[in-house]
Design brief:
The chain has 156 residues and is α/β, with parallel strands linked by helices. Helix content is 40%, strand content 19%. Strands 2-1-3-4-5 form a five-stranded mixed sheet. Helix 4 links the parallel strand 3 and strand 4. The chain is globular and about 55 Å long.
């Protein structure tokens, strides 16, 4: 198992916490010097807050842990491609690299819909690695939505 797979497995573990709350299973960890310094998972419905994304939670914790808003020597591992809000926060935090499990063709802002992480016009660009444990991350999400549709289906 590679280092990237090891840390993506830790992000998947966070996503499973969201899954257990019937939240969209998105998880994230932030690594500095080969150590996980922050974890986060989606809690939008639980908190009733648009801002309760896995990435924002992890960034908040990493800043608190490091005592700095700049996370220049950190790498984020996230199970789903970040949205525009999270991609903006990643750029603002000066994150060095983002490792993505599965892409999000409907709302992803690390290359799917657009790529906010690598816009030359911004003062910081983020290195991106896509497709780490992609099948596992994708299946977790599609399984979640399959179960949700079955629960919502009227009983015959």
């Amino acid at each position: 198992m590679t280092q990237e797979e090891k840390y993506m497995k830790a992000a998947i573990k966070q996503a499973m916490k969201a899954y257990a709350l019937t939240e969209v299973p998105i998880g994230c960890v932030i690594v500095q010097n080969d150590t996980i310094i922050a974890r986060g998972y989606n809690r939008r419905n639980t908190e009733g807050n648009t801002l309760a994304h896995a990435e924002l939670s992890a960034i908040r914790k990493a800043c608190k842990k490091t005592g700095d808003w700049r996370l220049e020597d950190c790498t984020m591992y996230v199970t789903l491609e970040p949205c525009q809000m999270c991609a903006g926060a990643i750029v603002q935090s000066r994150m060095h690299k983002v490792v993505i499990g599965s892409m999000n063709p409907k709302a992803g802002c690390a290359g799917s819909v657009l790529n906010l992480l690598q816009m030359a016009e911004f003062n910081h660009q983020v290195e991106i690695k896509r497709g780490v444990l992609e099948e596992e991350c994708s299946e977790m999400l599609s399984g979640f939505f399959r179960e949700l549709r079955l629960k919502k289906r009227p009983k015959a």
